[in-house]
What does this fold into?
Amino acid sequence: MKKLFILLFSFLTISAQAASSEGEEFKPGDLIMHHIADDYSWHFADGAVLYLPVILIDNGKFVSFSSSNFYNENHELVPYEGYVLNHGHIYRADASGEPSEDKAGLYDFSITKNVASMFVSVALLFLVFFSIASSYKKNAGKAPRGLQSFFEPIVIFVRDEIAKGNIGPKYERYMPYLLTIFFFIWFNNLLGLMPGGANLTGNIAVTLVLATLTLLITVFSGNKNYWGHIFATPGVPKWLAPIMIPVELIGILTKPFSLMVRLFANITAGHIIILSLFSLIFIFKSVAVAPISVAFAIFMFFLELLVALLQAYIFTLLSAMYFGGAVEEHDHVDDMGFGEGAH
Amino acid sequence: MDLVTPNFGLIFWQLVTFLIVMFLLSKFAWKPIMGALRERETSIENALSAAEQAKLEMQGLKAENEKLLAEARMERDRILKEASEAANNLVETAKTKANDEGARMIAQAREAIENEKLAALAEVKNMAAALSVDIAERILRKELSDPKAQQALAEDYIREVTLN
It folds into this structure.
């Protein structure tokens, strides 16, 4: 039995070596970067490719075509209608069909893999939460059931632990945003872990938008106390203001910046680790590595499932904390003890 | 570097999609869900407070019942005491009355007996007197039937008179 396994492994090793020596050299870095980057087509598996629409605004002119036009029969990149795809970006093609450096006025609104994946997640979000909302209407005042009973504790957790605990009595205004980012991030994190899934929440543009929304909501809900703390921090001498004000203003920006980087880095790192573990098989050119790689990858996958939820929670929690800081009615140090009733 | 360069198209789609999702979800999902949750929580809270209220009322009722019971008990005790006092009084009065009556009757009887005795004694005296007179008369008549005896008597009397 043991011998049979060794034989099998050695045979597979040989055949794997044979297969890899046929093509060009395997570069794990390229493979990983390709997997976590955005794309104009969606590879589910070899041969199962969904070509997504390219939408361009070229100096006010609307151009749209399928991204399959960038490939010829041999799956080589070719220019199409004066545009060329190069290293994951669309450029204007010059006379010889090479990408030109001139990108002025060319805006790319293509439905990329990430956008398509986001649409899938949105459809899923609508499907799940509209059905839950309707079941709340159907059995009003009764115990939750089915999907409703799975999501209800989570919604209550977001409301009680995240919103109420950190924002205070004005929490209700922020509930739609907090619930939406929580489930949006969580669903997209999980979809990103699906085989063939896009790395949406590990894309800096996505986390940038989410963090910016948190920043805008924080800034626009900031009350007198919030701005007071920024422009005239209590307990700090006036002559320190030229230092304190820039520091506090930078502080406003670093908070959402950290949100942006944290989500992006956590999700991308998870993808990179799992892909690296699988790449080990091809780096060592041996199937014998596979059990170890797979075992570690499975472990990482479960960890990623946790991280998917954890990062959604952290993003929502920190957003709620920033909102809470913006709307908080402060008890200043100088009226501590006898400030009760003065507010 | 490509990894940390935000893509303009993706920013656009993400922003638009996210805002639409947030709008639709808040209108058609979060609002009814949060409303239903709040409603259920208030109804549960109300039910709990109603139960608490009922418990308090029950306790109040129980206390009142106990108070009433205690009052009733006191009333009963008071009535019993009064009744027994009245009975005692009645018995006492009856006893005194009976005693008085008895004493009065005894006194009357004693008086009557005394009277009867006096009457009887008077009669006995009278009778004895009459008998004595009668006897004396008879004796005298017999003694003095002869003149000698009458003489002797007269002489006796005379003697007596001289002695006096």
Notes: The interface with chain A takes residues 2-15, 17-18, 21-22, 24-26, 28-34, 36-37, 39-40, 43 of chain B (CB under 8 Å).
